[in-house]
Design brief:
Blueprint: H1 11-25, H2 29-37, H3 44-57, H4 64-78, H5 83-95, H6 100-109, H7 111-114, H8 116-136
Helix pairs in contact: 1-3, 2-3, 4-5, 4-6, 4-8, 5-8, 6-8
Length: 137
C-alpha cells in the first residue's frame, strides 16, 4: 500500500534515507540495535532507523550537525537516565561535523534550562566520550 499523502515519505523511502544517515553517523548502529532488541521487539532496529533517522533527521530545514546538537541538548536536559543515548549521540554529533567545543557549549547552555546537575551529567558524558576517542587514537 503506498502512501498518497502529499509531502510524506513511504516507509521504504524513509528507511533508505534513514540508512543513508546512519551510514554517515554510525554504520554498525542498525545491526547493534537489531542484535540487542529485535528478539524483544521484532523489527525494532529497522523501525527506529526508518522513523527517527528517515523521517526526522532527513527532514529539510536543519542540517545534520544542528539536528545532532539539538539531540544532545534534549538528552542533557532529560537527565541522567539518558546517559547511554547521550554518549552515542555525542559520537554521532562529532561524525556530523560538530567540534568538541560546539558539543560542550550546547551541553553547557542546558544548565539554564535543565539545571546544573543535568549539565554536569552531560559534561561528564562528553568527557568520557572524548577520553575514549583520545585513548583509541
Amino acid at each position: 500500500m503506498s502512501d498518497t499523502r502529499p509531502n510524506t515519505l513511504n516507509s521504504t523511502c524513509a528507511l533508505e534515507k534513514g540508512r543513508d544517515i546512519v551510514a554517515r553517523l554510525n554504520p554498525p548502529l542498525e545491526g547493534q540495535l537489531a542484535d540487542k532488541y529485535d528478539d524483544l521487539v521484532p523489527d525494532f532496529a529497522e523501525s527506529l532507523v526508518e522513523w527517527a533517522y528517515g523521517r526526522h533527521y532527513a527532514r529539510p530545514g536543519l542540517d545534520l550537525k544542528t539536528r545532532q546538537l539539538c539531540t544532545i541538548s534534549a538528552l542533557t536536559v532529560l537527565g541522567g537516565q539518558t546517559g547511554p543515548q547521550l554518549k552515542v549521540n555525542i559520537q554521532h554529533t562529532l561524525s556530523a561535523g560538530a567540534t568538541r567545543t560546539e558539543i560542550i557549549e550546547a551541553i553547557w547552555q542546558m544548565a539554564v534550562y535543565g539545571g546544573l546537575p543535568a549539565a554536569i551529567n552531560g559534561l561528564n558524558a562528553a568527557h568520557e566520550v572524548f577520553e575514549e576517542l583520545d585513548e583509541a587514537a
